[in-house]
Batch of 4 targets.
Target 1
Amino acid sequence: NAGVMQNPRHLVRRRGQEARLRCSPMKGHSHVYWYRQLPEEGLKFMVYLQKENIIDESGMPKERFSAEFPKEGPSILRIQQVVRGDSAAYFCASSPVRWQTNEKLFFGSGTQLSVL
Amino acid sequence: KQEVTQIPAALSVPEGENLVLNCSFTDSAIYNLQWFRQDPGKGLTSLLLIQSSQREQTSGRLNASLDKSSGRSTLYIAASQPGDSATYLCAPRGTASKLTFGTGTRLQVTL
């Protein structure tokens, strides 16, 4: 049973380009969480999705950022017209529909986005 | 809004020492609290999870305690080793089913 898979591990973009980050949840999980870690800062919640639905996007910037989790395929975090301030590590985690209180949340290895 | 504070921000100890990392949170309405370690440039490794009804959890040389009513958790590391050097993060899980992370304690264990 593979863990949470994120790709790519490293992504380099020039200012103004688009960045697409992918997250495949653990088998049997249908909820995905995205977090961002800016240099020298803690992890900040961005968005919480279930398949075909956004549950909580309170941590996601209103402009240029979007997230989806289609019925088939991985969850995608999309950043349009990237700026240098978007350079960060982006982590995702997944949970089952009935996430029990004794169940840990497991994270992927992250995508390091560097904007030149 | 949940806010999580970890003290100290950084800690350096000689090998073999026992140490305590502190975590405080403002909203006590939590389901559980997880402790993670993060190595430089790497992802997060889950260490321990304490449910809101529990007071302690132990795994090897690690012991985590939770005082939900006062909004505090501690991570105790016994007989520290250089391999324990990492950043330690605590993250309570709130009723909105998301984790809120502290900024972490950066631990350095020296030979």
Note: Chain A has a mean pLDDT of 92.
Target 2
Amino acid sequence: GAVVSQHPSRVICKSGTSVKIECRSLDFQATTMFWYRQFPKQSLMLMATSNEGSKATYEQGVEKDKFLINHASLTLSTLTVTSAHPEDSSFYICSARDAIGGDLITLFGPGTRLTVT
Amino acid sequence: GQNIDQPTEMTATEGAIVQINCTYQTSGFNGLFWYQQHAGEAPTFLSYNVLDGLEEKGRFSSFLSRSKGYSYLLLKELQMKDSASYLCAPMDSNYQLIWGAGTKLIIKP
């Protein structure tokens, strides 16, 4: 069935380095994918909407030069956290929509826990 | 503005039934989703309602009243593994999911 995968599930990096997170739709094509960030005990915060073949749409307050999004194909979107700082440590989750039973259902990847030291 | 209102926390007993209510205000409406999120994990899809009424799926049922801006998630025969946060997420006219803080459900033996 339709699944959204993410890689890596956990990553620890040093401050100042860049980290790339991949989000893939399995068994379906996703023209639109979404990237969220979630801090402990807080609600999901939408960072950006990733559109295949075009530039991502960023939410207010999210730095597009820091969080680079590339939606290279209908099944792959990547989020690169550039020059990471400890305050970027968070749980990053991608999601994609698939038509299931005629309804557009949003499915989530398992998330990537980023720790910046 | 857009707003979601759910109880912050609820406690129930294993084997019992619990109803988690959600009221919402959105700019337009394209259905309402319920997700389950265990601590440290990503949300998993539970249900989707776009028309008024009750949708039953195993132990979980979801109800929607569009005129009242109201939904509930009903969990029956509660199991310890049901301890999680439950997120009510309506979809607005731009097909964006609107997220609240969710309801933390604690199941006691």
Note: Chain B has a mean pLDDT of 94.
Target 3
Amino acid sequence: AQKITQTQPGMFVQEKEAVTLDCTYDTSDPSYGLFWYKQPSSGEMIFLIYQGSYDQQNATEGRYSLNFQKARKSANLVISASQLGDSAMYFCAMREGPNTGKLIFGQGTTLQVKP
Amino acid sequence: EAQVTQNPRYLITVTGKKLTVTCSQNMNHEYMSWYRQDPGLGLRQIYYSMNVEVTDKGDVPEGYKVSRKEKRNFPLILESPSPNQTSLYFCASSLSGQLYGYTFGSGTRLTVV
């Protein structure tokens, strides 16, 4: 059965430093997508970055990059040059393809950026 | 503006009083879904719909009903709410396929007393 695990309930990072948020997944489907979402204290869910199971290169979106290690089934989010506005809850999620509406989430990691 | 709109944002109700949370999307997405978020548990999927009149259970469907009579709307119905359904609820929509994540509404904070 598909599963997403985020083992870091909370993380601290100094402003302007990089931080890695861990995510491991389990699936038997060779075709899947991995997603990271940000949830600030205001509560909305904001899509950050996507990685497809067949993608050869790691995804990047501005200061966000995804360290995708398929053999290890990990999809860690790297945030470079942390900003105070990055303080939020971060969720890793997975969707198996191609015709399913199931998007499952990990438990989330709370990131606090220190000035 | 492309968005998912859910209402109300906040709702306090009493045990057993039927309620409906509405959800609408303007992106012509095939898929729509409902999630609940509880501390320490992340987001758990309640139901999802692949298209009009096609729905399927997620991981926590007990106590909830949904219907998809129009492509843009996907209401969540609690026929007899109980206190353990106090939660933050999100509606979301997406295109078909694993390439696409869901776009989320702003959330509905439901309290059942």
Note: DSSP finds no helices and twelve strands in chain A.
Target 4
Amino acid sequence: GAVVSQHPSWVICKSGTSVKIECRSLDFQATTMFWYRQFPKQSLMLMATSNEGSKATYEQGVEKDKFLINHASLTLSTLTVTSAHPEDSSFYICSATMYGSSNQPQHFGDGTRLSIL
Amino acid sequence: QQQVKQSPQSLIVQKGGISIINCAYENTAFDYFPWYQQFPGKGPALLIAIRPDVSEKKEGRFTISFNKSAKQFSLHIMDSQPGDSATYFCAASRPGGTSYGKLTFGQGTILTVHP
């Protein structure tokens, strides 16, 4: 099946640091990637949608300057949390899908647990 | 109108029993309904999905039942096993426009299967 790799799986850093998370589709070309945030025992909250070669579309309430998304190739998207603070601590998950129809399944990475001290 | 409501919030089942999780939606434009399984510290994994032109889909021990008129769909896990203990999410998406391919997730159900 389709494989999405997310790196790193866990990161701890000091407040004010910027953190980059990578999401790679290993065996298919992902025209669209999604970034989610998940708090403990809660559902996934979509943060943004990124299409290869174009600017990301952010959901309402998500700060574009805080969460920088780049989708430079069909196999790689990155999320950079800039000047991270303790309230940014969360589980960040990416997913990838192929263009075609809304019925193309999303394949998820294993998430990145971000802890800001 | 974009919400997908999932119930129950948590479910305890004995080994060998049937686990049933229900979801309801409002937006009739939704045309794709997947179920995801998530273990702690992992990303969701696609279990099974259905389109509204069929009323039931079965894959192994997992079955989706879909009621278009009631705008409801459910996941049935037959012969539930302790290894099925996880959080299950239903989701829905619709074609076209700015919502292309976006999934709307239910709130999740924590399933515990006792040996």
Note: The interface with chain A takes residues 31-32, 34, 36, 41-46, 49, 51, 89, 93-96, 98, 100-103, 105-108, 110 of chain B (CB under 8 Å).
